[in-house]
Amino acid sequence: MRVLGVDPGLTRCGVGIVEGEPGRTCRLIVGGVIRTDPGTELAERLLAIEGKLTALLTKYEPDAVAVERVFSQHNVSTVIGTAQASGVAMLAGARRGLPVTTYTPSEVKAAVTGYGDADKNQVTTMVTRLLRLTEAPRPADAADAIALAICHVWRGGTKARLTGGTQNTTRTGVRQ
Questions:
Q1: Do 60 and 2 touch, CB atoms closer than 8 A?
Q2: Looking at the annotation, which residues are catalytic?
Q3: pTM for the predicted model, two decimal places
C-alpha cells in the first residue's frame, strides 16, 4: 500500500508518501513541504497547494490519502487556513477516486510513538527510526505528513482489510 500523508497548512503544507504493509517496516518514497507566500491571495495559495498535490498524486500514484484532522487552535485565522488546506487535500484525493481518511494528531502520535501526547521531536525521531533514515525529515511539517502516511498504512490498512474497505466511507471513499 502506498499512502500520501498531508499535514495541512497554508504557508507550509507537509507531504509525505510511504509504501508498506500493516505490521511491517515502511519505505519512504518522498517527503517535503508545499510552501505558499502569505502575501499572495488566498485563492491563489489554495490553487498552488492543489496543483502540487495533484502533481504528487500523478507522479507517485498512491493508493490512499491520509490528512491530519483539523482541531481547535487558539488562533482562529490559523485554524481556518489549516481547514481550507485540509479541504483542498481531501478534494485532490477524492477527485482521483482514492480513499481519503483523516486522523487526529493524537492518533498519529500514538501510531508512530506509542504515546498520544508525544511532542514534535519525538514524532520526528520515531519517523526517522521507523523508516531507517540516515537523516531526520525536515521541517517538522514533512515529518508529520510522513507520520500520517505511516499511521494510515498501519492502522487504516488493517482497518480496511477487517471491514472490507467499505465501512465508514462515502461513495467517493472519504471517511466520515
A1: yes
A2: 7, 68, 141
A3: 0.87
- CATH code for the structural domain at 2-163: 3.30.420.10
Q: Report H helices in the chain.
A: 42-60, 76-95, 105-113, 120-130, 140-151, 157-163
> In the chain, where are the structural domains located?
2-163
Reduce the DSSP state of residue 67 to 3 states and report it: strand
- pLDDT tens by residue, the chain, 176 residues: 999 999 999 999 999 999 999 989 999 999 999 999 999 999 999 999 999 999 999 999 999 999 999 876 667 777 898 999 999 999 999 999 999 999 999 999 999 999 989 999 999 999 999 999 999 999 999 999 999 999 999 987 555 544 554 444 433 444 44
- The string over 95-119, giving b where at least 16 C-beta atoms fall within 10 Å of a residue's C-beta and e elsewhere, is ebebbbbbbebebbbbbbbeeeebe
The position carrying cell 517527503 is 31
